[in-house]
Please model this.
Amino acid sequence: MADWTGLVVSEARRRRLDAESVPLSRARQRHLALPQQGVDSMRPAGHRIEAHDVGAFAAAGLATVPVARRPVVAVFSDPTARVPAGQALLAGQRWDAERPLLMARLQEEGLDPLGWPLVATGPDAVVAAIREAAEGVDAILLCGLDLAGARPAWIDAFERTGLRWWWPPGDAPVLGLEFGRSSAKAAVFALPSGLVDVDDGFSRVVRPYLRALQGGP
Model:
């Protein structure tokens, strides 16, 4: 099995986000951009700030701390096969559970994800929607698209536009993730159907990528 975690963490470190100074009231779940001394010990750059860290910084007389900018993440799902919970289902449809799960996981990371459903279908429409989103976000998560079996047609649509995409055979469905770039800025992660596989892919690769993007370990 490919070392997907190592691959995306290495990529994230190349793209590390800029630093900003924030008040302690907004520092929890952020990653330090520089080493910072608390009343008890020194926290290294990349340290994820928790509640006890906030107290230690305040006890040391700090009002603000330098942190990495929060990554902006957009989450897509395919409306042809999935509809929001509570709406009536048509033949062949089911309620969308993967996107709410991903949104909740991102919120656990202290992020404010953007729900960005596809409004048109077909490989070229998928690529066009992703390229539009990529202009203003750091990462894009695709869920519910057909990743089973043969290489999906929308991957070919990516390559026709000259965008880089990695599609290794064999182990990807086990890990539940593919990785590529839609532009010089945004990374694209495509996850398969099913809550277990989506959650596994997020835990193994998406979360490490987002934390490394902020300088975390």
Confidence is low (pLDDT under 50) at residues 167-180. The chain has two domains: 18-68, 70-213.
